[in-house]
Structure formats: structure tokens, C-alpha cells
Design goal:
alpha/beta; 8 strands; globular; two-stranded antiparallel ribbon; about 180 residues; single chain
Length: about 180
């Protein structure tokens, strides 16, 4: 086997190094989006990102719907939170392929609001358990909105917080449904 076949193919190298432990920050390697929220890394055809402002994310960044979370122990969600997330967005005719999901705990992803806005160009942003001030946004109460010039930010609890408190889940659902359908 020609060793240059692997070393000259950044996609092959990335497929081999998909675990966060092997992430190469500031690499010029293109990022390959994957189809599922799980740990599998099956490349999606036609979904390569290779700008200088790359983010590791799931889904489609062109739809205008962005979910931002911070799960240090998982690529995106815990298994229980992933199931709840998929059911929640599914009830509103959304799925993991027609929204973008960004985990700020991934060391490759900058926690810079301007870069996030520039790269994703979202219209509706949901902060799932992410403190708005960590992104240098003004304080936004839970289950409340901040209307900006380009996008509206909905700040809410993480799914784990909602699992622990049914009242938080009810408040979230009422506001989230209104937010997404607006």
C-alpha cells in the first residue's frame, strides 16, 4: 500500500482521527459533517466545509436554525438528551438534518459570538443550557428571547435540567413551540 495514499488525503486522515482526543485545532483539513448525532462518522455527500472559520457541528447550517449547547462529556448530547431533542424538534417538523447543532465544549469550536453568527448566519438560535454571558451576550432569562438585528436568541435550560424539573420542561415547550413556529 502506498503510504502517500493516506497521508495525502485529509478526508481519510480526519476519518481516522474523529475522536475529540485526536482533534487537531487550527488544522487546514476540511471538516466532514456526519449524518447522525451519535458517534458514527459516515460522511455526507456534498457537505464539506473548508473555510478559515470552521466549526465542528451536526446538521445543515444553511437553514437558519441553530442550537448551541455545551456538553463536555459527549460529542453533542447525552443519549437521553439526544432522544428528547429529536422528539422535541420532530414534533415541530424539524430533524437533525435540517437544523445545525453546535457543541461549544468541542475544543475546535470558538466561543465567539461574531464568528458563530458569521459562519452559521442563523435566524433562530436556541441556547440549551448555555449561559448567554459566556458568549458575551446580555443576560437573557430562561425561556426568554433576545431579538437582534439578524437573529432571535431563545435561552433555555439544558435537557438534563428539564429532566430534573417537569415545570422547566413545560415552560420550555410552550415558549419553544411559539419561537420555532414564528
Amino acid at each position: 500500500m502506498d503510504k502517500n495514499l493516506i497521508t495525502d488525503n485529509p478526508i481519510a486522515i480526519q476519518a481516522l482521527m474523529t475522536d475529540t482526543v485526536f482533534a487537531i485545532p487550527d488544522s487546514n483539513m476540511p471538516i466532514v459533517e456526519t449524518q447522525s448525532l451519535g458517534n458514527t462518522t459516515t460522511p455526507q455527500q456534498g457537505h464539506l466545509e473548508s473555510s478559515a472559520e470552521e466549526f465542528v457541528y451536526k446538521g445543515d447550517r444553511t437553514t437558519g436554525v441553530l442550537f448551541i449547547l455545551r456538553y463536555p462529556d459527549y460529542p453533542y448530547f447525552s443519549p437521553q438528551a439526544e432522544e428528547a431533542f429529536l422528539k422535541t424538534i420532530g414534533a415541530l417538523q424539524l430533524n437533525a438534518e435540517n437544523v445545525a447543532i453546535l457543541n461549544l465544549a468541542n475544543p475546535h469550536n470558538p466561543n465567539e459570538w461574531k464568528r458563530i453568527m458569521s459562519f452559521f448566519n442563523p435566524k433562530k438560535i436556541t441556547l440549551l443550557g448555555v449561559d448567554p454571558t459566556s458568549l458575551r451576550l446580555p443576560e437573557i432569562a430562561h425561556n426568554s428571547y433576545m431579538h437582534g438585528k439578524v437573529a432571535t436568541v431563545f435561552n433555555t435550560f439544558s435537557f438534563e435540567e428539564m429532566f430534573a424539573d417537569v415545570q422547566k420542561k413545560k415552560l420550555f415547550w410552550t415558549e419553544f413551540k411559539s419561537f420555532i413556529q414564528s
